[in-house]
Amino acid sequence: MLRKPVYLLGLVWRQLRDDPGRAPRLAVRLLGRVPGPLGARMRRSRLAVPRPRAVQRETAELRALLAHASARPAGQARTPDPSGSRGTGAAPPSGTPVLQFVTNALPRTNAGYTVRTHRIALAQREVLGLDTHVATRLGYPLSQGTGDARPRVEVDGVPYHRLIPWLPPSNPVRAVDKGADLAGRLVRELRPAVLHAVSNHLNAAVALELGRRHGLPVVYEVRGFLEDSWLSRDPAHTEADDFYRLTRELETRRMAEADAVVTLGEAMRAEIASRGVPAEKIFTVPNGVDEAFLQPLPDAADLRVELGIPADVPVVGLTSSFYGYEGIDTLIDAAALLRDRGTPITLLLVGDGPERGALERRAAGHGVSAVFTGRVPMGSVRRYHAILDVFAVPRRADRVCQLVTPLKPIEAMAGGIPVIASDVKALREIVEPGVTGTLTVPEDPEAWAISLDELIYSPERRRKIGQSAREWVRAERTWRAVTAGYREAYAIT
Length: 493
Description:
By secondary structure, the protein is α/β, with parallel strands linked by helices. It has 3 domains: 3-48, no CATH class; 59-288 and 481-491, 3-Layer(aba) Sandwich (Rossmann fold), CATH 3.40.50; 291-477, Rossmann fold (3-Layer(aba) Sandwich).
């Protein structure tokens, strides 16, 4: 397929044109794809972490998006659909197509974001009877350097559509227009009743432009706050920085322009309402789990041997993307304190991300027994859960952690694993201290060491907490249960 090499060459040229200093890191990432020891060594290199784009260029692009005419000003009525079947206050009937717009997706990207997308799409099809399709952002997955240029893939019967142009657009305004052009073919083919955009504002902009062109309602699902994630990644970042202010303004504008806003928890709902979005158009659809996670955990004795974890050593771990705000450094420091006090534990850290190299060096420097597995297939996660005595969520007290509720601890709770988490607002929504888990002080290794010690030496307490957590998930947090919340969001469109 000629489109693939043309696009990839255009992508490399654009990156080097934007910032020639990124060339060494780009070369290291390309070498990291080579099989064997060389590739493995390159993947562990600090240069394998992509260099952030220049802030000046980022803020210039944000200003351009804000200056661009709104896809649909807040409060402006849509052009009515000739059939008269849309925007009537009733949820779409069974069999109605819905088109979602997301940043990345399975099978190429396995993360909490993509798991939620997939499980929601499955549940919408199975429970609500909708014909849900998913479209990924412009250029994905070629924009990640992968060679997969298929225009459509199916995962468990869910169709995923790729919007792949011949060349990457030169600026984000053109990217929104091009995305709407390519997705317009899907709209004409599928005739969806609802356009459902998922974070971030670029996905919302594409959906809103399509909504304007075709007279369709738009739901914007806010799964996080991009500006707050950015704020948490560098102590030098502040709320007064242009990137923070402009990104927040863009996100807020997209929320206001959408017909309905969906989000993950009450802390997020309150934040969105505080920005002036009418409370009556904000709906909460929390994270959930597939019913398979409620089954007894599999026997993982062979995996434990494979990972070199002794049978008699307590194991504390997590599944996560390795970003600074996840607070994994606090967990490593707490493990070092426990070892010094004669309570050695093994950390099982499943996942990957820009902080992985630094965390590996930290664990080695402290002499902590830690197993870093990298990313594992979605279907294998429960085998790793089965090794754990305690699941940890050591998130920092950053603003993003106070607001955004993660998916991974709910999966662990479904398996009956006791969860210990940082005492931040978003985690209080899923962890009731002493009942469905334990809360402790964020960014405090001493507090974490004490709480872990109490759980490790109280098997009966761990069992009771794990059982209570599993029953709570069974009653309230399966994907089938939470997906019903989309009925209301779609109905007001």
